[in-house]
Amino acid sequence: MKHIYLLLAITIIYCSNGLFAQYSSKKINNIHQAYTDSIKNIKYTKIFPIWGQKVYEKGFDIPYPIGIMANYFYAKQGLVIDNLQLGLVTDNIDAPLTPIDFVGFGNNYTTAETYMVRPDVWIFPFLNVYGIFGGGNSTTEVNLDQLGDKPFGMQSIVNQSIKTAGVGMTGAAGLGPVWLAVDANMTWTKAQLVENPVKVSTLGVRFGHNFVFQSKPYRNIGLWAGAMAVKMGSSTVGEIKLSEVLPPVSAKKKQEVTDNYNDWYNDPATPIAQKIAANEVIKPLVDALGNSDSETIIKYGIDKSVKQPWNGLIGGQYQHNKSWMLRSEVGFIGNRKSFLLSLNYRFK
């Protein structure tokens, strides 16, 4: 039961949007002198970015100010869950949330697959602001491995839809032959089975270099490496049908779980207060294993956090021209794994 709530929390925790703004380009190489000269002669009349005219006069190429990006994003994130509270609702019972501090968890994960759009605008040549809007699906896997000091061994997997909205900004600058981009955003993710949206804060740092096509200086391939940190709102409250949380189990597995529960419950060392709480919310969960028709509702409350806040990033982008870019990025090293694929269009 505990891992059921955990499962819900993990789904809500969907994080790591992996979205960042289009970088400002560094100064054009001398082999593209004609292109550089044409940039210096541009009469820039748009409002954004502010100081755009001065940047062009110095021979720097900058992105078109307004763009929209379509993203596919996949992430798998390990979670830590604490302060579990459970309650039970049946035809005859409406038990309030009760602290359950005698259960232990194994490895817990949330996996999210989302589709998002990200409109953005360069306010200054070095500062981009954007919005994030999208949705998708998440799967939360919670593993309950002990009651007190006794083995238990129950797994819960919950699938649900999610919706995400947020805002962010990216600062970018050239540092000799490389560029630096620092990105920060906040998103609010509403999961189908959770009462309130969960706030997720993301910070990313990337260093990269653009390889410009000799014959077409507006075309380039960018490669980068960096790191990203994720922090999420800690408290989650919700409810779910028991039948939506419990996986199909064999008679042998149900008997094993039941025997382990009874061993813990009948142990003279188990505190009476824990037994009372277990009778209200753990025992019904054990009894319902394998019963896909159960209409019992589980109420839950938990505190959650990412298992490892930081992970590494590598990525690349092909810029066909100043309007079209295709980008991909992979998150690795650390507990969070992610993949981003995006198509960006910028308006002249």
Strand content: over 45%
Biggest pleated sheet: 10 strands, antiparallel, barrel
Total strands: the figure is: 14
Number of helices: 6
Radius of gyration: 26 Å
Order of helices and strands: HHHEEEEEEEEEEHHHEEEE
Rough shape? elongated
Structure description:
The chain is elongated and about 85 Å long. It is of the alpha+beta class and 348 residues long. The relative contact order is 0.22. It has a ten-stranded antiparallel barrel with strand order 1-4-5-6-7-8-9-12-13-14. It is built from six helices and 14 strands. It starts with a helix and ends with a strand. The longest helix is centred in the last third of the chain and has 16 residues, at 251-266. Residues 1-22 have low confidence and may be disordered. The chain has one domain.
SSE topology sketch:
Layout: H1 2-12, H2 33-40, H3 52-57, E1 66-89, E2 98-99, E3 103-105, E4 108-124, E5 127-147, E6 150-175, E7 178-191, E8 198-212, E9 220-232, E10 235-241, H4 251-266, H5 272-281, H6 283-287, E11 297-306, E12 310-319, E13 324-332, E14 337-347
Antiparallel strand pairs: 1-2, 1-4, 1-11, 1-14, 3-5, 4-5, 5-6, 6-7, 7-8, 8-9, 9-12, 10-11, 12-13, 13-14
Describe, in short, the structure shown.
It contains six helices and 14 strands.
List keywords for this structure.
16% helix; 10-stranded antiparallel barrel; 52% strand; disordered N terminus; alpha+beta; 348 residues; 6 helices
